[in-house]
Amino acid sequence: MKLLTLNFLTCARKTCKSLPAAFPLHPKDAELEVVETDFNAPFLRNILGRLEWDALKTLCMELGLPNLPPSAPEPEALLEPGAEMAELELERELEPTQTARDLHNLLLETGIKEGKLVCGNCGHEYAVKEGIANFLLPSHLV
Amino acid sequence: MSRPEDTLPPDLFYNDTESRKYTTSSRIRHIQATMTNRALELLDLRSPSLVLDVGCGSGLSGEILSSISPSEGGPHTWIGLDISASMLGVALEKDVDGDLFLADAGQGVPFRPGTFDAAISISAVQWLCNAESSEETAQGRLGRFFNGLYASLRRGGRAVCQFYPKNDDQKRMISSSAIRAGFGAGLLEDDPGTKSAKVYLVLTVGGGDLSGDITGVVSGMEGVDVMDSRRKGKSQIKHGEQKGSKAWIVKKKEQMERKGKIIKANSKYTGRKRRPNF
Ligand SMILES: C[S@@+](CC[C@H](N)C(=O)[O-])C[C@H]1O[C@@H](n2cnc3c(N)ncnc32)[C@H](O)[C@@H]1O
Ligand SMILES: [Zn+2]
Q1: B129-182 pLDDT, tens per residue?
Q2: Which InterPro entries match (chain A) (predicted)?
């Protein structure tokens, strides 16, 4: 499961869903994997404003990943004109900045392969196996 | 022909054998791809989006979402939910790009408000009319699903659910449940009255740009009826005939060569099992 997905995932229990403590879920005994994927600048820009940056910072801390800057980068910080094509100012010639590459690597290439996700409100543990999280709730928890 | 929905719960019907048979059948693959492309046409995504696939199965729709080229506004990033571990196991074997969740859509949609640009659901929603236990009702399950879906979409977002209603009552029950959750809704039927009739529930969340409005989605489409809460969902279902007005090129993305690299020193790569054993 991509770390991007974790930035949107909440506890599935109805009694938790809208409570601040039910987001983000906290990884436990997590084994990470990195899977290379194509850089997609328009997607990154699309998703940037929707990220909960504080939750992402917490997640990196909990996973022992390098610290993130205090606030999310601005969309403009994702692309810069390529050296040779600068004067043409064509979007397709823009190149991703290091910030964009780091963000792509963190959100779309880094994922939880095995482990658990724990709700900070009810303590329910969701198992993750082979990257797939089990969000089936026993009926008394629905 | 009996409906699978009437025989077994979905997680038992889609067991290892059935999931494999389903995914390898070229007839099924073709039908599911056609419906996915039709749904994509209705979603009209113009740029790379975050998409929820409800009842994603083995990822047939997801593979299409991942392979849409930049010139066509893709590729999209998707997250799939399915209640069948066997179906997800097949998706895992195919190494699909989307993230997969073992989840019952009838229990809700566990994502924070405004997560998705769009949602797609192909041949799955009719299963929600089956109660998974005696404590549940079809209405309760549909309500939790559509309420959760509505909240998880961003303002101006859209969802398209192709489903196989058992009868007109079920069609009405499903549409009115979506409307009660707050969606603008329209029903579109391809090849009505034939054996290959296909019903699409087109749902919009207000509040975004004008094109998010249901009337924008279906404008120019003949015979599509718009239902909304103001009309109390008294649906007169009509049919539209404009099939494939836009040619969708489904490119099979080359299986990207992937290198799995483990970050944590104490971990090791474990070969992929047939399916996760929860
Ligand atoms: C006909 S298959 C379609 C799969 C996929 N959408 C496709 O087009 O190939 C129906 C799928 O819906 C899933 N399903 C049924 N009930 C479900 C539920 N309550 N929650 C999530 N998925 C469900 C089944 O497990 C199955 O994979
Ligand atoms: Zn919880």
Answers
A1: 987 677 889 999 999 999 999 999 999 999 999 999 999 999 999 999 999 999
A2: Trm112, Trm112-like
Centroid of ligand 1 to alpha carbon of B83 (angstroms):
7
Q: Give nearest CA residue, ligand 1 atom 9.
A: B60
Q: What's the start-to-end Cα distance of chain B, in Å?
A: 33
- CA–CA distance, A19 with A44 (Å, rounded to integer): 27
A95: helix, strand or coil: strand
Instruction: Determine contact, residues B57/B85, Cβ cutoff 8 Å.
Output: no
CA-based nearest residue to B261, from A96, A113, A6: A113
The ligand that comes nearest to the alpha carbon of residue B103 is 1
Task: For B91-126, write each residue's pLDDT tens digit.
Answer: 999 999 999 999 999 999 999 999 999 999 999 999
The token pair that represents A116 in the structure block? 């658990």
**Per-residue model confidence as pLDDT tens digits over B21-71:** 999 999 999 999 999 999 999 999 999 999 999 999 999 999 999 999 999
Residues, beta carbon < 5 Å, ion ligand 2: A 11, 13, 16, 22, 119, 121-122, 124
CA-based nearest residue in chain A for residue B273: A130
Question: Which residues are A95's β-sheet partners?
Answer: A80
Find the B189 Cα to ligand 1 centroid distance in Å.
Answer: 20
Q: Is the ipTM of this complex over 0.90?
A: yes
Contact A125, A116 (CB under 8 A): yes
Rg for chain A, CA atoms, rounded: 17
Q: What share of chain A is helix, strand, coil (3-state, %, to 5)?
A: 40, 25, 35
Whether this model's pTM surpasses 0.90? no
Residue B59 CB–ligand 1 contact under 6 Å: no
Query: DSSP label at A74?
Result: P
Q: Which atom of ligand 1 is nearest to the CA of B81?
A: 21
